[in-house]
């Protein structure tokens, strides 16, 4: 029996990252940065959405495609975190946990893609 997307550890980590990013966006210095906030929200939600959507195709090729999109969204979130620091919206300490989690999720997605390619299983 195939696992549902909710059972994948990388999906669970994506949920944690989403919560962290949404908490970070409550920062007062981001109050008027609607476009910035909207972009990072869409990117972080895209990570888990693509894992979920890809898992439903019952095709390793399609699932891998969506995992790669999810990986790209993860990199986008990491970049937005760097930008939020560089633009003075947040400090290093505020973004560090989220930043580290994006690296971990990205690596997990890479490993998942390799697993699917090697073992031809979902």
Automatic annotation (TrEMBL):
Pfam families: 23S_rRNA_IVP (PF05635)
InterPro entries, A to Z: 23S_rRNA-intervening_sequence (IPR012657), 23S_rRNA_IVS_sf (IPR036583)
SUPFAM superfamilies: IVS-encoded protein-like
Matching PANTHER family: FOUR HELIX BUNDLE PROTEIN
Domain of life, per lineage: Bacteria
Protein name according to UniProt: Four helix bundle protein
UniProt-listed CDD domains: 23S_rRNA_IVP_like (cd16377)
NCBIfam families per UniProt: four helix bundle protein
Native source species: Flavobacterium bomense
């Amino acid at each position: 029996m195939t696992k549902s997307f909710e059972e994948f550890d990388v999906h669970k980590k994506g949920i944690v990252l989403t919560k962290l990013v949404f908490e970070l966006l409550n920062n007062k210095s981001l109050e008027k940065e609607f476009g910035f906030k909207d972009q990072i929200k869409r990117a972080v939600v895209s990570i888990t959405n693509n894992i979920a959507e890809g898992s439903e195709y019952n095709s390793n090729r399609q699932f891998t495609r969506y995992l790669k999109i999810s990986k790209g969204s993860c990199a986008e979130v990491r970049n937005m975190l760097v930008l939020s620091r560089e633009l003075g919206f947040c400090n290093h300490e505020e973004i560090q946990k989220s930043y580290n989690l994006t690296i971990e999720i990205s690596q997990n997605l890479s490993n998942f893609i390799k697993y699917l390619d090697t073992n031809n299983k979902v």
